[in-house]
Amino acid sequence: MSSGNGSEPRPTDEELSAMSREELLRLGGKLDGVEIVNYPDPWPVKGTKAEKRAERAVALWFLIAALAGAAFFAALIWWPWQFEPPGNQDGYFWYSLYTPVLGVTLGVSVLALAIGVLLYSKRFIPAELAVQQRTDNMGEGSAEVDRKTFVAHLADAGERSTIGRRSLIKRSAGLGAGVLGLGTVALPLAGFIENPWKDANGKDSLAHTGWQPAFPGEVVYLRRHTGDFGEVSLVRPEDLDAGAMETVYPFRESERDDHDALVHALKRSDNPVMLIRLRPDDAAKVVKRKGQEDFNYGDYYAYTKICSHVGCPTSLYEQQTNRILCPCHQSQFDALQYAKPVFGPATRALAQLPITVHSDGYLIARHDFIEPIGPGFWERKS
Ligand code: FES
Q: Residues in domain Rieske (predicted)?
């Protein structure tokens, strides 16, 4: 607020302190060259049925915001969010609704809160019409008189909005905003609610992938995806030409007749592995990583497909240079040097899966990766 054109006599500090808010309001207007054209009270007669109806309408929107916020919070925690294959009709139906339910409940909550606020300002805040001449106050800061009159304006606006005596609206707005706030705090934390150390050696823990045997001695085969989710096509060493690459997934005999498990193995995000058969000349140049000297089977090397930068699929293998390329940010990994990064933003090698050939002639994983795949997380050691 400016101190106006200076033609108005300035009150002393004592006079200012003795003024009522109403007087300060008028004084502020005069000093600023403000002319209030219209300042109607939206409810000149207090306590009418119409006023109460308007109050209840506003409270209703805040209540809807609170209910939708609570529904969002409940869905975030309790809705079945884990993947269910389409074969499991009931489970898949509820799983597929998870994201839409979160979107709808959060959207309704925000929308209802916004409508409540808009409705309140439309029905209860006086629509003041004032005209003011602007001035830059000659570059000087606000004087005491400006500060006092400005505060008086704010206080007057607060009082005229009648929010102070509308406890129904205050409570419902607090409830709506509070529940919505709770949901927005819970959203980023929800991923951490599951205990990541529970069953730390199981294939479903954060520390392992689907390549982890479910029990000691379980054989986990390398399986290709033929396009038919239920088909089991295992990989023999002679299936790949020198210089070829194939994407493989884990398969265990216990899942042969379990359609859901077969689908899940192909869809689980940390399962895909690039099986690369190096050309003999290239294989002779391989530099193995310490501790992983026996992870390959002859010319066959298996690396996770999940990029160590931010987790895109590194699906491109360039036979001439033996480079594995990630299309997301152009990281390149050297397949002859335990897939260590040689270009781009990735800083860690792709995790290598130890493989061998089973007595039945099919390629199998000797055990799970010895380090977490993909971007680093808190337990990564390399
Ligand atoms: S995710 Fe692979 S380079 Fe960024």
A: 270-364
| pLDDT at residue 1 in the model | 42
| 345 Cα nearest atom in ligand 1 | 3
Burial class (CB in 10 A: 0-12, 13-18, 19+), 4: buried
Q: Please tell me if the CB atom of residue 343 comes closer than 6 angstroms to any atom of ligand 1.
A: no
Predicted confidence at residue 3, as pLDDT, reads 44
> Considering only 17-21, 31-35, 49-53, which range has the smallest mean pLDDT?
31-35
Helices 98-124 and 89-96: crossing angle in degrees, nearest 10, is 30
Residue 149 pLDDT grade (very low, low, confident, very high; cuts 50, 70, 90): confident
Shortest-distance atom of ligand 1 to CA 375: 1
For residue 312 and ligand 1, the question of a CB distance below 6 A is answered with: yes
| Residue 361 identity | G
What DSSP element (H or E) covers 25? helix 21-31
In short, whether 344's Cβ falls inside 6 Å of ligand 1 is yes
